[in-house]
Amino acid sequence: MLRTLGVVLATTTLTLAGWAGTLTGAQAQPALSAATPTPGPTLACPPALPVSGQFLSASPTSITVRYSMILSPPCGYDPPITLVLFASREEAVAWQNPVASAVSGAQRQGDITVSGLTPDREYWYRFSAGEKHDPYVINGPVRTLPAGSASCRATVTVDNRWTGGYAATVTVRNTAEETINGWQVTWRWYGDERISAIWNGVLSFSGPDVTVRNASYNGTLAPGGSTTFGMLVWANAPGQLALNCGR
After folding, report:
1. Closest CA to 242 of 125, 142, 137
2. Is 110 exposed, middle or buried (0-12, 13-18, 19+ CB in 10 A)?
3. 58: Cβ–Cβ under 8 A, 6 or more apart, which residues?
4. Best CA proximity match to 83, nearest among 61, 59, 110
5. Are 86 and 92 in contact (CB under 8 A)?
6. What's this model's pTM, rounded to 2 decimal places?
7. Nearest one of 206, 241, 186, 200 to 54, comparing CA atoms
8. Residues 208-232: what's their mean pLDDT?
9. Fewest beta carbons within 10 Å, which of 3, 84, 121, 151?
Protein backbone atom coordinates (compact mmCIF):
# COMPACT_ATOMS: atom_id res chain seq x y z
CA MET A 1 0.00 0.00 0.00
CA LEU A 2 2.75 2.48 0.92
CA ARG A 3 4.73 1.50 -2.19
CA THR A 4 1.72 2.14 -4.39
CA LEU A 5 1.10 5.57 -2.77
CA GLY A 6 4.73 6.52 -3.34
CA VAL A 7 4.54 5.64 -7.00
CA VAL A 8 1.39 7.77 -7.39
CA LEU A 9 3.01 10.75 -5.63
CA ALA A 10 6.14 10.48 -7.74
CA THR A 11 4.15 10.31 -10.92
CA THR A 12 2.10 13.37 -9.88
CA THR A 13 5.27 15.33 -9.06
CA LEU A 14 6.82 14.56 -12.45
CA THR A 15 3.61 15.55 -14.23
CA LEU A 16 3.43 18.94 -12.46
CA ALA A 17 7.06 19.52 -13.17
CA GLY A 18 6.46 18.81 -16.85
CA TRP A 19 3.59 21.26 -16.98
CA ALA A 20 5.63 23.93 -15.30
CA GLY A 21 8.36 23.46 -17.81
CA THR A 22 6.01 24.04 -20.71
CA LEU A 23 4.53 27.40 -19.38
CA THR A 24 5.94 30.54 -21.01
CA GLY A 25 6.37 33.80 -19.14
CA ALA A 26 3.24 35.30 -20.71
CA GLN A 27 1.25 32.22 -19.75
CA ALA A 28 2.58 32.21 -16.22
CA GLN A 29 1.71 35.96 -15.63
CA PRO A 30 -0.78 37.41 -18.13
CA ALA A 31 0.05 41.01 -19.11
CA LEU A 32 -2.51 43.73 -18.41
CA SER A 33 -3.50 45.56 -21.60
CA ALA A 34 -3.83 49.36 -21.48
CA ALA A 35 -7.45 50.56 -21.45
CA THR A 36 -8.50 52.38 -24.58
CA PRO A 37 -9.66 55.91 -23.62
CA THR A 38 -13.29 56.65 -24.33
CA PRO A 39 -13.71 59.89 -26.30
CA GLY A 40 -15.89 62.52 -24.67
CA PRO A 41 -19.08 63.79 -26.30
CA THR A 42 -18.65 66.42 -29.00
CA LEU A 43 -20.33 69.71 -28.10
CA ALA A 44 -23.06 70.66 -30.58
CA CYS A 45 -24.35 74.23 -30.34
CA PRO A 46 -28.08 74.64 -30.95
CA PRO A 47 -29.22 76.30 -34.19
CA ALA A 48 -29.85 79.73 -32.65
CA LEU A 49 -28.29 83.16 -33.01
CA PRO A 50 -25.89 83.86 -30.12
CA VAL A 51 -27.12 87.47 -29.95
CA SER A 52 -29.96 89.41 -31.56
CA GLY A 53 -30.52 93.12 -32.12
CA GLN A 54 -33.55 95.26 -32.95
CA PHE A 55 -33.48 98.93 -33.89
CA LEU A 56 -35.55 100.97 -31.44
CA SER A 57 -35.22 104.66 -32.21
CA ALA A 58 -33.09 107.48 -33.55
CA SER A 59 -32.37 111.12 -32.85
CA PRO A 60 -30.35 113.50 -35.06
CA THR A 61 -27.16 112.34 -33.34
CA SER A 62 -27.91 108.88 -31.88
CA ILE A 63 -29.12 105.37 -32.65
CA THR A 64 -30.66 103.06 -30.02
CA VAL A 65 -30.70 99.26 -30.47
CA ARG A 66 -32.21 96.61 -28.19
CA TYR A 67 -30.01 93.53 -27.79
CA SER A 68 -30.51 90.07 -26.34
CA MET A 69 -27.63 87.69 -25.58
CA ILE A 70 -29.37 84.38 -26.28
CA LEU A 71 -26.55 81.86 -25.79
CA SER A 72 -23.65 81.72 -23.33
CA PRO A 73 -20.09 80.53 -24.08
CA PRO A 74 -18.90 78.40 -25.79
CA CYS A 75 -21.87 78.80 -28.16
CA GLY A 76 -22.47 82.48 -27.39
CA TYR A 77 -21.20 85.44 -25.38
CA ASP A 78 -21.15 86.92 -21.91
CA PRO A 79 -21.82 90.62 -21.27
CA PRO A 80 -20.80 93.31 -21.84
CA ILE A 81 -21.46 93.45 -25.56
CA THR A 82 -20.40 96.22 -27.97
CA LEU A 83 -22.66 97.74 -30.64
CA VAL A 84 -20.54 98.84 -33.62
CA LEU A 85 -21.77 101.14 -36.41
CA PHE A 86 -20.54 101.28 -40.01
CA ALA A 87 -21.23 103.76 -42.81
CA SER A 88 -22.01 101.07 -45.42
CA ARG A 89 -23.05 97.44 -45.63
CA GLU A 90 -19.82 96.57 -47.45
CA GLU A 91 -17.73 97.90 -44.57
CA ALA A 92 -19.96 96.15 -42.06
CA VAL A 93 -19.59 92.80 -43.84
CA ALA A 94 -15.80 93.23 -43.99
CA TRP A 95 -15.69 94.65 -40.46
CA GLN A 96 -13.72 97.66 -41.69
CA ASN A 97 -13.72 101.36 -40.75
CA PRO A 98 -16.24 101.38 -37.87
CA VAL A 99 -17.50 104.91 -37.29
CA ALA A 100 -18.86 104.64 -33.71
CA SER A 101 -19.59 102.17 -30.94
CA ALA A 102 -21.07 101.84 -27.46
CA VAL A 103 -20.84 99.19 -24.75
CA SER A 104 -23.75 97.59 -22.91
CA GLY A 105 -24.10 97.07 -19.20
CA ALA A 106 -23.78 93.76 -17.37
CA GLN A 107 -27.29 92.61 -18.32
CA ARG A 108 -27.93 89.94 -20.97
CA GLN A 109 -30.81 91.99 -22.41
CA GLY A 110 -31.09 95.74 -22.71
CA ASP A 111 -30.71 98.83 -24.88
CA ILE A 112 -27.53 100.39 -26.25
CA THR A 113 -27.39 103.98 -27.52
CA VAL A 114 -24.58 105.15 -29.78
CA SER A 115 -24.18 108.93 -29.69
CA GLY A 116 -22.15 111.51 -31.56
CA LEU A 117 -23.53 110.57 -35.00
CA THR A 118 -24.22 112.70 -38.08
CA PRO A 119 -27.83 113.85 -38.63
CA ASP A 120 -29.80 112.32 -41.51
CA ARG A 121 -27.23 109.58 -42.15
CA GLU A 122 -27.64 105.82 -42.69
CA TYR A 123 -25.71 103.29 -40.61
CA TRP A 124 -25.30 99.51 -40.40
CA TYR A 125 -24.63 97.78 -37.10
CA ARG A 126 -22.96 94.65 -35.78
CA PHE A 127 -22.01 93.21 -32.36
CA SER A 128 -18.75 92.18 -30.74
CA ALA A 129 -18.02 90.66 -27.35
CA GLY A 130 -14.50 90.66 -25.93
CA GLU A 131 -12.17 89.58 -28.73
CA LYS A 132 -14.96 87.97 -30.76
CA HIS A 133 -16.81 89.58 -33.67
CA ASP A 134 -20.30 88.14 -34.01
CA PRO A 135 -20.48 86.69 -37.55
CA TYR A 136 -24.28 86.61 -37.92
CA VAL A 137 -26.01 89.91 -37.19
CA ILE A 138 -25.46 92.57 -39.88
CA ASN A 139 -28.47 94.89 -39.63
CA GLY A 140 -29.45 98.12 -41.33
CA PRO A 141 -29.69 100.58 -42.69
CA VAL A 142 -30.90 102.66 -39.75
CA ARG A 143 -30.99 106.43 -40.14
CA THR A 144 -30.51 109.33 -37.78
CA LEU A 145 -33.11 112.08 -37.89
CA PRO A 146 -32.58 115.36 -39.72
CA ALA A 147 -31.15 118.15 -37.58
CA GLY A 148 -33.75 119.95 -35.49
CA SER A 149 -36.42 117.23 -35.79
CA ALA A 150 -35.93 115.45 -32.48
CA SER A 151 -39.32 116.13 -30.94
CA CYS A 152 -40.58 112.57 -30.56
CA ARG A 153 -39.45 108.96 -30.47
CA ALA A 154 -41.14 106.00 -32.17
CA THR A 155 -40.66 102.36 -31.22
CA VAL A 156 -42.29 99.27 -32.70
CA THR A 157 -43.47 96.07 -31.02
CA VAL A 158 -44.48 93.00 -33.05
CA ASP A 159 -47.62 91.70 -31.32
CA ASN A 160 -48.23 88.65 -33.50
CA ARG A 161 -46.33 87.03 -36.34
CA TRP A 162 -47.40 84.42 -38.87
CA THR A 163 -46.24 83.07 -42.21
CA GLY A 164 -46.50 85.97 -44.62
CA GLY A 165 -47.11 88.82 -42.19
CA TYR A 166 -47.41 90.28 -38.71
CA ALA A 167 -49.36 92.70 -36.53
CA ALA A 168 -47.42 95.52 -34.87
CA THR A 169 -47.95 98.43 -32.48
CA VAL A 170 -45.93 101.64 -32.81
CA THR A 171 -45.56 103.86 -29.73
CA VAL A 172 -44.96 107.57 -30.28
CA ARG A 173 -43.53 109.48 -27.29
CA ASN A 174 -42.95 113.23 -26.96
CA THR A 175 -39.26 113.75 -26.10
CA ALA A 176 -39.38 117.54 -26.34
CA GLU A 177 -39.70 119.93 -23.40
CA GLU A 178 -42.89 121.44 -24.75
CA THR A 179 -46.22 120.05 -25.94
CA ILE A 180 -46.29 118.97 -29.57
CA ASN A 181 -49.36 119.34 -31.77
CA GLY A 182 -49.00 116.83 -34.55
CA TRP A 183 -46.45 114.13 -35.26
CA GLN A 184 -45.43 111.82 -38.10
CA VAL A 185 -43.52 108.54 -38.22
CA THR A 186 -41.61 107.63 -41.37
CA TRP A 187 -39.63 104.61 -42.56
CA ARG A 188 -38.60 102.81 -45.73
CA TRP A 189 -39.46 99.26 -46.77
CA TYR A 190 -36.51 97.22 -48.07
CA GLY A 191 -38.51 94.16 -49.12
CA ASP A 192 -42.01 93.31 -50.33
CA GLU A 193 -43.83 94.61 -47.24
CA ARG A 194 -47.19 96.32 -47.55
CA ILE A 195 -49.72 97.56 -45.00
CA SER A 196 -53.19 96.05 -45.31
CA ALA A 197 -54.78 97.86 -42.34
CA ILE A 198 -53.89 100.67 -39.94
CA TRP A 199 -55.63 102.24 -36.93
CA ASN A 200 -55.03 105.37 -34.81
CA GLY A 201 -52.98 106.89 -37.64
CA VAL A 202 -53.25 108.22 -41.19
CA LEU A 203 -51.19 106.34 -43.79
CA SER A 204 -49.51 107.69 -46.92
CA PHE A 205 -46.65 106.30 -48.98
CA SER A 206 -44.53 106.91 -52.05
CA GLY A 207 -42.95 103.73 -53.36
CA PRO A 208 -41.03 102.17 -50.47
CA ASP A 209 -41.23 105.32 -48.28
CA VAL A 210 -44.01 105.19 -45.69
CA THR A 211 -45.45 108.00 -43.56
CA VAL A 212 -47.99 107.64 -40.75
CA ARG A 213 -49.39 110.88 -39.32
CA ASN A 214 -51.46 111.33 -36.21
CA ALA A 215 -55.20 110.94 -36.31
CA SER A 216 -57.41 113.91 -35.42
CA TYR A 217 -57.66 112.81 -31.78
CA ASN A 218 -54.09 111.76 -30.81
CA GLY A 219 -51.80 114.43 -32.24
CA THR A 220 -51.34 116.52 -29.09
CA LEU A 221 -48.76 115.09 -26.71
CA ALA A 222 -47.54 116.71 -23.51
CA PRO A 223 -43.83 116.39 -22.62
CA GLY A 224 -43.24 112.71 -21.87
CA GLY A 225 -46.69 111.79 -23.14
CA SER A 226 -47.27 109.00 -25.64
CA THR A 227 -49.82 107.45 -27.98
CA THR A 228 -49.90 104.41 -30.26
CA PHE A 229 -51.02 103.28 -33.67
CA GLY A 230 -51.32 99.75 -35.01
CA MET A 231 -50.99 98.05 -38.37
CA LEU A 232 -51.25 94.74 -40.19
CA VAL A 233 -48.27 94.12 -42.48
CA TRP A 234 -47.99 91.49 -45.23
CA ALA A 235 -44.48 90.40 -46.16
CA ASN A 236 -42.77 87.21 -47.35
CA ALA A 237 -39.45 88.23 -45.77
CA PRO A 238 -40.10 91.03 -43.26
CA GLY A 239 -37.17 93.25 -42.37
CA GLN A 240 -36.60 95.58 -39.47
CA LEU A 241 -38.41 98.90 -39.22
CA ALA A 242 -36.03 101.85 -38.85
CA LEU A 243 -38.53 104.40 -37.56
CA ASN A 244 -38.01 108.16 -37.62
CA CYS A 245 -40.34 110.41 -35.66
CA GLY A 246 -40.82 114.15 -36.10
CA ARG A 247 -43.38 116.91 -36.35
Report:
1. 142
2. middle
3. 64, 142, 143, 144, 145, 242, 243, 244
4. 110
5. yes
6. 0.53
7. 241
8. 93
9. 3
Distance separating alpha carbons of residues 221 and 176, to the nearest angstrom = 10
The whole-number average pLDDT for the span 118-132 is 93
Report how far residue 235's alpha carbon sits from residue 215's, in angstroms, rounded to the nearest whole number.
25
Going by DSSP bridges, is the β-strand pair 180-181/201-206 parallel, antiparallel, or unpaired? Answer: unpaired
b/e for 182-195, b at 16 or more Cβ within 10 A?
ebbbbbbbeeebeb
Q: How far apart are CA 155 and CA 171, in angstroms?
A: 5
Contact 238, 156 (CB under 8 A): no
> 154 - beta bridge partners?
172
Asked whether the bond before 47 is cis by omega within 30 degrees of 0, the reply is: no
